[in-house]
Amino acid sequence: MLKSRWILNFPLGLFLGAVTAFSVAWFVDAEFKSELLGRLAPSVLSALTTLVAAAIAVTGVVRNIENQNNLAEQTRQRKLAAARAVLPLSLSEFYKVCDSHLTRLANDERTVIGGQAELSATSQETLKLVIENADHVTQKSLGFLLMCYQVVVARYHDEQASDPEAIETEASIKLAKYSRASALGLWASLKALVAVQFEYARKGEERDRADMAARTFEFELIHCKRRDGWLLTNDALFKELLEAKVADPSRTFLNPNYFYR
């Protein structure tokens, strides 16, 4: 606020100073002739009065703008504090949704069983409220989360709408594993990105936690297992596909430029 006030007042002060300096110089050059002063005094006083009135008016406008900005900032801070208070609950739900889909894919199921398939409207509104009122860095990271979520949920809906193949061949089974590994990579990377946001929810600080996200991503893929405890990496093809994604996560949401490839 101080900087903006200085920027707004500086040109006016410079103008008034220049007018005063030129007026003094002009009066000195005119050698203070009483007759000339008497003739010009009303005009000069009128001009000075107008300038002072203009300066007061501009100062009032500047202060009014500052007050409005202060009120807007206070409102933003209150909304952000309210949203952050319930953000951990929304992130926990987000985490469970990711976990439910990882379990679904590990067990080769078409629908989520015994879990939560999508975020509730309340959690989505909480995330949007934080995005609306947070700083640019947090806006970018949480906005990216919601964009990624829309992608994987849309693909999930597409799977629900498609008909399963009646006859399974060796080629179709292999293709299905490729598809599942791709989906596992997306959901695991989304879960990793959600996990690192808990620090912001607790402390209100956004940090670069790419290393933590990468470790969480690796753990989720390598230890992905069915309900009976069988690890997917026990399958040679799954092991190859999942380890390849850990080595190069550029086709997952760990790539910050995922939407600009």
Describe the model.
The protein has helices spanning 2-29, 34-106, 121-133, 136-161, 170-196, 198-203, 210-222, 236-247. Helix 2 (34-106) packs across helix 5 (170-196) and helix 3 runs antiparallel to helix 4. The protein is built from 8 helices and no strands. The two termini are 40 Å apart. The protein has 2 domains: 2-67; 86-260, no CATH class. The chain has 261 residues and is mainly alpha-helical. It is elongated. Helix content is 76%, strand content 0%.
- Summarize the amount of helix as a percent range: over 70%
Specify the number of helices.
8
Termini separation (Å)?
40 Å
Major pleated sheet: none
**Overall number of domains:** 2
Q: Which value, in Å, is the CA radius of gyration?
A: 32 Å
What is the structural class? Answer: mainly alpha
| Succession of helices and strands | HHHHHHHH
Strand content: under 5%
Number of strands: 0
Shape: elongated
Q: What is the average of the pLDDT values?
A: 84
Q: Which spans of ≥5 residues are poorly predicted at pLDDT below 50?
A: 1-7
Summarize this structure briefly:
This protein has helices at residues 2-29, 34-106, 121-133, 136-161, 170-196, 198-203, 210-222, 236-247.
List its traits:
single chain; 261 residues; mainly alpha; 2 domains; 76% helix; disordered N terminus
How are the SSEs placed, and which strands pair?
Elements lengths: L1 H28 L4 H73 L14 H13 L2 H26 L8 H27 L1 H6 L6 H13 L13 H12 L14
